[in-house]
Amino acid sequence: MTQTADPSRPQPATLNDVARLAGVSIATASKALNGRSQVRAETRQRVIEAAERLSFRPNQLARGLLAGRTGTVGLLTSDLEGRFSIPILMGAEDAFGAGEVAVFLCDARGDSIREQHHVRALLGRRVDGLIVVGSRTDPRPSLGRELAVPVVYAYAPSDDPADLSIVPDNVDAGRMAVGHLLACGRTRIAHITGDPGYLAARERAEGARAALADAGLRLVGEPRFGAWSEGWGRASTALLLDQQPDVDAVLCGSDQIARGVMDVLRERGLRVPEDVSVMGFDNWQVLTSGSRPHLTSVDMNLEQVGRAAAQALFGAIGGATRSGVEALPCRVVIRGSTAPLS
Amino acid sequence: MTQTADPSRPQPATLNDVARLAGVSIATASKALNGRSQVRAETRQRVIEAAERLSFRPNQLARGLLAGRTGTVGLLTSDLEGRFSIPILMGAEDAFGAGEVAVFLCDARGDSIREQHHVRALLGRRVDGLIVVGSRTDPRPSLGRELAVPVVYAYAPSDDPADLSIVPDNVDAGRMAVGHLLACGRTRIAHITGDPGYLAARERAEGARAALADAGLRLVGEPRFGAWSEGWGRASTALLLDQQPDVDAVLCGSDQIARGVMDVLRERGLRVPEDVSVMGFDNWQVLTSGSRPHLTSVDMNLEQVGRAAAQALFGAIGGATRSGVEALPCRVVIRGSTAPLS
DNA sequence: TAACTTTCTGAAAGCCTTTTCGGTTCACCG
DNA sequence: CGGTGAACCGAAAAGGCTTTCAGAAAGTTA
What we know:
Oligomer: homodimer
Number of strands of chain A: 11
CATH topology of the largest domain in chain A: Rossmann fold
Structural class of chain A: alpha/beta
CATH superfamily of the largest domain in chain A: Response regulator
């Protein structure tokens, strides 16, 4: 029988041990260690040394029990696999980790039953707040208003406007992308993008169209919705070149699509960026820096989304409630695949 | 002044509330809810209903304080960014999440100071154990033997053999990869791989060489160490074809390298897989399924590494200590880029 | 009816820390 | 030398839960 009490593993020291070793009461020890002013300097020193000797770490459980705040938050993601969750998670972890907050990570695998389960478990652990990270920008069901702790939604906004959601501004991103291509002197711009079931795809297309309209231009053909894959990029580029051989720029809905587009352009003997400039979306480094030339792409600043969500949650824990959907700007990262017309 | 006590947010119910509502003592309520046998069925029912009504969730802090076990573990990663940490983290989260264990996520950013800081914070929170996830397979400094809780190292083994480490078997992976190419009838196999500073690169090369030796063969040329990038794949393939034009298979140290290799092969008019079979490493889906043809690759089963680490930690918490480095097998995922010689 | 089980219930201790508040000590002043 | 205030210290409560143990209630047997 394996016992849980491993005799070789010493129990961590308690405040009691420290107090005894220093020859003071528990209360004094606590005050000494927490910088309270009711302690003589000499006594404080003795206590601190005792704590050092026992490598005492105050038990956060007890502290949390007493304070009513645990200094923990739950990070509820719907798919760790997805590459969008990770940077957000990093940003949040970063914003919290700097302070004295620890993060519980839960992956619901896109299953709402499991999500419910995790929420309950987190509430049982008395987290001070919750960040819900989605894997796409389409609105998702709210966790509800009755929760005992504040909640902030990141990337995927809540469908309840009373909740606070932090998302990247994909419409504006579409505008910015086209803006860059226009600044390069391109006027015959096509848009090849992914699954039209994704709000992100539709919003980017909308932004692109709006920016062109502002310049008195239109897309070359309709936006070509399809899949978020290199294969779709290749297939639709072939079609595009047949139908609109005079295109001078392609804005792609993802870096994967852009890779496919560039491959076919090269095969057809077109030069990137001279003949056709190509732009991707997501700024996924493995794709942007593997291509020839390196791929200009729109970065959604996801880490910042995560950080903003964490800060908003921090504020909400402090009582400063916000609500609605807050859209953060994206940014264009210029590399070799776009250049001014010569 | 924003106050922390938000009057609109109801305090969660305590066992006391439940007991009062059910008209029993706290003790009885506790026993009723925890399935202890000292309670009449009718009383138990009343308590359960009361708990339901108040949507009572026992405070895990208080429970943990009492039990000496918190039901939490720390997951210490050195770089969330890196794509190797994530699947491991998923596997671990999976193995734990199924039970009643919650996971604290900490990212040390490859900084050992920050790592120390996180370890202390986690110990202060009285985690029951720690999983340390590395970003490369080279051994890393142990956290030490004096820790109050068990530790399991995943992917990056500890340099102290007294610790338990779970890693993928890269030597064997090299053997398996070459085994597959040999099974395809390939005999003139080249190896293009990444930074020789990485143990993974050296081990895979070693395994490949060993498998060839077993078959009475040798690599075509020396292993070509370089960088883990498409660019290196392209550059070294050009060189390879100049020096060894009769090569009939290329084993690559990563999927990125493989993509570069395939691009140059295609440009030189060589057919994949007919003329030259190409194999990658890591089975990174965005790369393997974007290429033409889809890329055969070695998967390190990282999720399983994570799961195994979690299970080992679970065992260690229960007192079943293991130690040493345990290497888990990888697997070859066959796609279109490798095929038998016709 | 007395004595004895059996079954259920509740008071209280304990986990570890922080904080309040009353008590002790001591220097200093009138 | 009694009194005052400051400086320091410790007892105790609180926070929510589990568990032990003693006691109450109900049922059984002689």
